[in-house]
Description:
Blueprint: H1 3-14, H2 17-38, H3 45-58, H4 61-71, H5 87-99, H6 118-121, H7 129-135, H8 142-160, H9 168-190, H10 192-200
Helix pairs in contact: 2-9, 3-8, 4-5, 4-8, 4-9, 5-7, 5-8, 8-9
Amino acid sequence: MRAEELIHVRETITGDPEYYEVLRNLCVDYMWLEGYWGQCSERGGIDRFCQRFGEYYWDLKELKRRAWELAKQGCVGNSKCGYEPTDEVIKATMFLVHRCGLGDRGGEAPDCGAMICYRTRRGLDLCDAEQQANKWSTPAGSGFRAAMYIVRQIRHNLFHGRKTELEPEQFKRNRELITAAQHITSLVIDALVDAEDTLAG
């Protein structure tokens, strides 16, 4: 990348104040959440957090709505693997799509072939979505954990992946994913005191 390209990227993103604020807030929200669940355990903190609070958060209609906004975009790629999704993100996404009744039409799942999917973009056969959904572990609050795994991948991509994708379709997808992820992290933090009180009571 040349310096002129970097300046163009910065001007494009900062020229959209709403998106720029959401992007910054996601990074800060996730930093705070990592600090909180890092107290649970240096390793597996997010899993312990989801195990403890997953059922509480999954009862929130707004969180389910935001989780659907993530899932309907298709699987989020991993910047460290050529933007192919990890197995965990595939399972999490397909679980939200096919097992959580989040669709707009009475829980009807969307057509994976109509999604912006890394496999369809590359002319590959679609994965077995139902099979992938069945591989996701299903204790109480599993939908919340699935959503948080996707949020984590989006955050990791921001820090470790390309931050310069301005091609219109991909830019739009990134904006929608980052916005949905930030709504989830904000909701989680805003409700955390009540979550603790509910479990303590």
